[in-house]
Design goal:
This protein is α+β, with helices and mostly antiparallel strands and 79 residues long. It contains one helix and five strands. The chain has a five-stranded mixed beta sheet with strand order 2-3-4-1-5, covered by helices on one side. It is globular.
Amino acid sequence: MKNPSTHLSFMVSNIEETKSFYSKLLRTEPSKVKRNYVKFEIEEPAMVLSFIQSQRDDTIDWASSGAHFGIRVSSTKEV
């Protein structure tokens, strides 16, 4: 990885609808698809967007949901 990139992860209620929406919006297919998980890696601006389908039908507990924000770098020396 040449430059740092932003990493955003969100909880969603429907992973298939999310995959379809962001594929159209970003004009690219996801870089990774798993059960209840989709990841898009965008080159410009350097960004990773990941989506995790909530396993619960009620309100999402954001404190324990796995949703997060971060900056990806090539090595810990850059931090």
